[in-house]
Amino acid sequence: MAAVGSGGSPAAAGPGVVSAGMLEPGTTTAGNVKHLVLFLHEAVLVQYVDTLKLAVPSLIYTLQNNLQYVAISNLPAATFQVTYQLKILTTALFSVLMLNRSLSRLQWASLLLLFTGVAIVQAQQAGGGSPRPLDQNPGAGLAAVVASCLSSGFAGVYFEKILKGSSGSVWLRNLQLGLFGTALGLVGLWWAEGTAVAHRGFFFGYTPAVWGVVLNQAFGGLLVAVVVKYADNILKGFATSLSIVLSTVASIRLFGFHVDPLFALGAGLVIGAVYLYSLPRGAAKAIASASASTSGPCTHQQPPGQPPPPQLSSHRGDVSTEPFLPKLLTKVKGS
């Protein structure tokens, strides 16, 4: 891959331009670390316009991470996990508005079902269905999780638009995001607790539980990459549903969370909506056609004595249309 200019087009070859073989970190050795540094200098500093484009999603991602801590501090873990699935709704809406994508009727219906389920869970939370600590503020928690979902949807779609609008690699874009995120996080740390850090040290208060949260977040990020590469939307939907169930069970065991019928109904609607939204287009069309065929009598009748017409295969050689089978992934060059 040639070096990318500020406008997204390949730059002319010249001094300091790194070849395609030196783009990815896995291709570097001890002998060409210098070339990697030259590439990073060219891609991050010289072509600063491309780098500045990543400041917007990086700022939003940093804000989103902090909002999640505010939300989980003011909501039960199970309620937070269910409500946080609103990010599917916000991502879909921003995809339609910014990327001109079209959603099927089943997906629109699943989004409406998702919103209804979250509304029921929040109604149960507002009604005081389960005991909560006195220092929790459900209103502040709901506002934080909604703002986090909005920022997650916008940043994800914006980042996808940048990736598709330029020839920079995903590795480079993640590096640029990390640089801005680290800088913004350090600025926020200095602004909020700069004096305490100066007196007590940067790692003061890092208990084993805190280190566990840090490692869990890092491991979760790596798992997301594995899911995207080796799994499909069906399995991702099952994983999301399983996370809701596990969060509910853990909340019952650790915090005495009470599951009433209203919460169970809302959580069930959210789990069903996540699964329906994750269905591939082929499976969605099959469900729609099946429901249409059972909703009324068939208008076409086969003449007596004639053989039935041949049935066309629904998956046409693509396993992705089977709703309960993982999608076959073909390795694309450069992926």
Automatic annotation (TrEMBL):
MF terms in GO: pyrimidine nucleotide-sugar transmembrane transporter activity
Residues that span the membrane, as ranges: 108-127, 139-159, 171-191, 203-228, 235-256, 262-279
Disordered: region residues: 293-323
InterPro entries found in the cross-reference section: EmrE-like, Nuc_sug_transpt
One Pfam assignment: Nuc_sug_transp
The organism's place on the tree of life at top rank: Eukaryota
Keywords: Membrane, Sugar transport, Transmembrane, Transmembrane helix, Transport
Membrane topology: Multi-pass membrane protein
Compartments in which it is found: Golgi apparatus membrane
Any one Gene Ontology cellular component term annotated for this protein: Golgi membrane
Main location: Golgi
Family statement drawn from the similarity comment of this UniProt entry: Belongs to the nucleotide-sugar transporter family. SLC35A subfamily.
Protein name listed in UniProt: UDP-galactose translocator isoform X2
Organism: Tursiops truncatus
